[in-house]
Each structure stands twice: as structure tokens, then as C-alpha cells.
Amino acid sequence: MRAVIQRADGASVVVAGERISGFVGPGLVVLAGVTHGDGPAEVAFLARKIAQLRILREERSAEELGAPVLLISQFTLYADTRKGRRPSWNGAAPGLVAEPLVAELGRALSAYGLPVHEGVFGADMAVSFTNDGPVTVLLDSAAP
Fold this sequence. Notes:
This protein is α/β, with parallel strands linked by helices. It has three helices and five strands; from the N terminus they run E-E-H-H-E-H-E-E. Helices cover 24% and strands 38% of the residues.
């Protein structure tokens, strides 16, 4: 699994013109991608890292502050752009595999005491937020 974590000062998700989720104030926006072979171990790794990374103001973690998280499924994190001009999405797990793992990531983050707000899996979403800092961190469960 991969995740792009961004420190945010508020975030929202709009689907079909309707605001469906979001938060006001300091928190994290997490874009999460799933690849073939990912499972519970990768979910647990990402949840712990996201909750405990000291990337909020004053080197605090989301877990320490009970900061909200906006979690968005993002298959494009597994784009392969090495050849040509059109990305390949072969590295991304199919929706039947990815959707339950992203949902499990949300539950795992909640278990750390974080209020989790979510997008709609597979929907055409407008995600808005103010990147605070800016701070953006890439996590990959396969990285050493």
C-alpha cells in the first residue's frame, strides 16, 4: 500500500455537487492506494505510521492530538509512467480488492482515536483542502 499524507488546515469532499465529508481545523488528508498482494499487514503498517508520524505543528502526531483524517482511495498512486505518455494502472489492485482494504485502513485509523472522514470509493470526487506548511509525506509499505 501507498499513502500520500498531507498536513491540512481543513478539508472537504464533494460528490455530484454535494459536500459529503470533511473537517475544519488541523488534520491530515490521506490518499491511499492498494496494489496486488496487499493485506492486513500493510493496512496495520500504514495506520500506525499515519497515526504516529510527528508531522503536525510542534512535532505532534495525529494520535496525540486526536486530529481528524480525510481518507481518500487513490488508485493512481500506482501509475506506471515509465513508457509513453499514457500511464498504466496495472499496478493498482482491482476495486474488489482495494475497497475493503481502504475501508479497513479507515477502521484502523479510528482505533487510534482519530476521527476519520472518507470519500466515496470509485466516485468522481472534488477533494479540497489547504495544505498546511506545506507538509506532504509519501509512505510505502513495501519500502525498507
